[in-house]
Amino acid sequence: MFEPRDCSSSVDAVRDEHAPDALVCDVATDFETLAPAQAEDLGLLVDALEPASYPTEWLPADAPTLLERYASSTFTIGMPGDGSIVWTRQTDPPVVLVKPRIEGSPEPFVEFLVAEALVECGLEVPEQFIGFFEAQYRDLDRAVPFDPNSTYQIAAALYDGWLGVQTREIFAGWHDTHPDLANAWRDAGDRLEDRVSGLSRAVARGETDFADATELACGAIKHGIELPAPFDALDTAAYRDHGPDYAIQWAETTFDALAE
């Protein structure tokens, strides 16, 4: 199920700097959330399993079932929206998991994504947004006028953006030390630029729903792309410093304005 992945020298250097104990593994099957039995197979590779759990009081009554499962004591790795690479600190040492669906992507981009996961893992931040918002997830749920799945998507995007405000400075610093990874980071940003610049118009015309737009805009933050309103307010040092408080204020202000 899990096989150690051979990484480039640049990725190995990033691991040494940010998450020196982390394992990087290819996964045999694709997944959004690993079945508990499969997740527990990681016990064959690591020294210990330490499942994360969170108080049920942090979740609104209509929270998606998968979010309820993640918050419970069930050993849960991976959630919808995580992308092609997942990292977890619920193991000792931590693990970065590369899904098979990434096959066919340009190798430099794959190497960047693995390096990005190692950087995030080294920040020792929560691996899912519920550990970021904590009890304030209920406040976000009240501020977002959409269904529970859209609220989930927006919460995951906002957390991704918060990580991006921090990690992009690291990525930008790779031009001298890891130029191959820096080039992949820049190229990925260049491909997003046109899509991001037209987001506000696409939402206004009904071509893109707000949750999808938030996901795209927040994913672009790590690339330093100029964002249109209202997403540009997330690309700030204030968001980096104030985290969930700022995210909820942004949501309240944004949706109040859209309702007018």
Describe the structure.
Helix 4 crosses helix 9 (179-197) and helix 9 packs antiparallel against helix 11 (210-220). Strands 1-2-6-4 form a four-stranded mixed β-sheet, covered by helices on one side. The protein has a two-stranded antiparallel sheet with strand order 3-5. The mean pLDDT is 95. The protein is of the alpha+beta class and 260 residues long. The longest helix is centred in the middle third of the chain and has 25 residues, at 148-172. It has two domains: 1-127, no CATH class; 138-260, no CATH class. 53% of the residues lie in helices and 8% in strands. It has helices spanning 9-18, 36-40, 65-71, 107-122, 130-133, 137-143, 148-172, 174-177, 179-197, 199-204, 210-220, 237-259; strands at 2-4, 23-27, 48-49, 85-88, 91-92, 95-98. InterPro entries: DUF7089 (IPR055515).
Jot down its keywords:
single chain; 260 residues; alpha+beta; 2 domains; four-stranded mixed sheet; two-stranded antiparallel ribbon; 12 helices; 6 strands; 53% helix; globular; DUF7089
SS-based structural class?
alpha+beta
> What is the strand tally?
6
Strand portion: 5-15%
The domain tally reads 2
Write the H/E string, N to C: EHEHEHEEEHHHHHHHHH
Radius of gyration: 18 Å
Distance between the termini: 52 Å
The biggest beta sheet reads: 4 strands, mixed
Shape: globular
Extract low-pLDDT stretches: none
Helical content (DSSP H or I, runs of 4+): 40-55%
Mean pLDDT: 95
Pfam family, one: DUF7089
InterPro entries: DUF7089
